[in-house]
Write a structure and sequence with these properties.
Layout (H helix, E strand, L loop, with lengths): L10 E2 L9 E2 L5 E2 L3 H11 L23 H13 L8 H4 L3 H7 L9 H12 L2 H20 L5 E8 L2 E2 L8 E3 L4 E4 L2 E5 L4 E5 L11 H12 L5 E6 L6 H9 L3 E6 L3 H7 L15 E10 L8 E10 L6 E7 L5 H9 L2 H13 L10 H24 L10 H9 L3 E6 L2 E6 L6 H8 L4
Parallel strand pairs: 4-10, 10-11
Antiparallel strand pairs: 1-2, 3-15, 4-8, 5-7, 6-7, 8-9, 11-14, 12-13, 13-14, 15-16
Length: 438
């Protein structure tokens, strides 16, 4: 296969009509025009390019075909287009849209072996991970600068990353009942991924939480008047409460039930009189003050009691908070935390954040960071340029409808022409991104 994309002649004819001839010689045809969208967003907000100043390239210049920035871009753009496997680079390297997005023009991109060395030798170390972290910070800065400066809500959660074999950091996790990594994520309430950290599989969900969020608090706390933190019961510990109180952060954290809490809420467990609503669920919300032995002082706890039709005993949940909001509003704010679970599923199911198949732990952390960068690039398109939609589009929709778009690409008179079908119904989204400022 040549750099320009030509290959040996191969023709396939389907049995239902032998007059149809199918070949794979469309060297000037791309199936992913969206590579150009990702490059436009990346270049406009200067996300990846500064990484070139942070990394030392030890390769011989006379034997180097691809710069580090070009290879990083290729790996991240491929993930963003749904090609999470490095092996795909051996075919995609000749894609004309990818070549244009990388600035390669008539030359092919990097192959699998070079991108694998990038992950393991260049990015899979302290300097490489710091460069990726800085790129992620630039992407989150861009997303947060366009928001209402009054309030920021951040959500914490962890997930399992199933693994097979004897990779560094893989261990059995009793909660998930599998061998895995146990990554930690932080998102805003609007789906911006602020940070991601790969952890060994046997650590507790809250392990390293404060060290994880401190850089975010130090950077973004001055940007917003209100700074809220939400998390589930796995992150309920006095260290987190005290840290939030010290830094003027409002927290909404689910609190595991215990005998003392059950005793406090017991007087309120009488089933409400009257006919249940159409939903069959009767709800009562109660304000409590509670102090565990490990706490330095009493804190506010809001209990939500639900009676479901056909169930003898109520369902009870507790949320600890330092908010002054009414009890019903506290529960409503906490319930919004479920959005982070949707975003993590989105990253795992569409961008394959769980494709951490390298042997070394640091290389897998680099893979996760690149996956998050790909997510934020697509999320910027979703947040800034997908207008006039009745619903918030999913990452899967973005990839299938905006990234994986076919086109014919030609070169004439020192110009590149990308011919997308005239019947393409989402051209207005391309105009929103590419005609910006023109």
């Amino acid at each position: 296969m040549l750099d320009s994309g030509e290959s040996r002649k191969e023709v396939i004819r389907p049995d239902f009509n032998r007059a149809i001839m199918i070949d794979f010689q469309g060297a000037t045809i791309t199936s992913d025009v969206g590579f150009l969208l990702m490059r436009e967003i990346d270049d406009r907000f200067k996300i990846i390019a500064p990484m070139g100043d942070c990394l030392e390239d030890l390769r011989s210049p006379t034997h180097t075909k691809h710069s580090l920035v070009q290879m990083i871009r290729q790996r991240i753009y491929q993930i963003g287009a749904g090609y999470e496997d490095c092996n795909d680079a051996d075919f995609l390297r000749i894609d004309p849209a990818l070549r244009l997005a990388l600035g390669k023009d008539h030359q092919a991109g990097a192959g699998q072996s070079m991108l694998s060395r990038l992950e393991n030798d260049i990015l899979g170390n302290e300097a490489g991970l710091q460069a990726l972290e800085a790129a992620l910070t630039r992407s989150t800065d861009t997303l947060l600068k366009r928001k209402n400066k009054k309030r920021l809500i951040i959500d914490l959660d962890s997930t399992e990353d199933p693994a097979h074999g004897k990779q560094e950091g893989v261990a059995y996790n009793g909660h998930f009942a599998k061998n895995c990594f146990h990554p930690l994520f932080c998102f805003t309430s609007e789906g911006d991924c602020l940070r991601a950290k790969l952890r060994p599989g046997n650590v507790h969900s809250a392990d390293g939480t404060l060290e994880f969020i401190k850089p975010l608090v130090e950077r973004y706390r001055p940007w917003f008047k209100l700074f809220w933190l939400r998390s589930d019961a796995a992150f309920a510990n006095p260290g987190t409460y005290e840290y939030c109180e010290e830094h003027r952060m409002t927290y909404f954290i689910r609190l595991p039930s215990n005998k003392n809490l059950d005793r406090l809420v017991a007087p309120h467990l009488g089933r409400p009189v009257g006919r249940p609503p159409q939903s069959g669920i009767q709800v009562k919300i109660v304000d409590l003050h509670y102090q565990a032995k490990s706490w330095s002082r009493p804190r506010r706890v809001v209990a939500k009691i639900e009676w479901h039709r056909g169930e003898l005993f109520p369902r009870i949940g507790f949320v600890i908070t330092n908010s002054r909001l009414p009890a019903g509003k506290v529960i409503k704010v906490y319930n919004g935390r479920a959005e982070i679970e949707n975003r993590i599923k989105e990253g795992k199911n569409t961008l394959r954040w769980d494709k951490t198949s390298c042997q070394r732990f640091e290389a897998n952390q680099a893979r996760l960071q690149m996956g998050v960068l790909a997510y934020n690039l697509l999320h910027m398109i979703r947040q800034f340029y997908v207008w006039g939609e009745e619903v918030k589009r999913s990452m899967e929709w973005l990839i299938k409808r905006l990234i994986k778009v076919g086109a014919r690409i030609s070169y004439h008179a020192r110009r590149w022409y990308v011919h997308v079908a005239s019947a393409f119904p989402l051209a207005h989204h391309y105009r929103a991104v590419l005609a910006w400022g023109s």
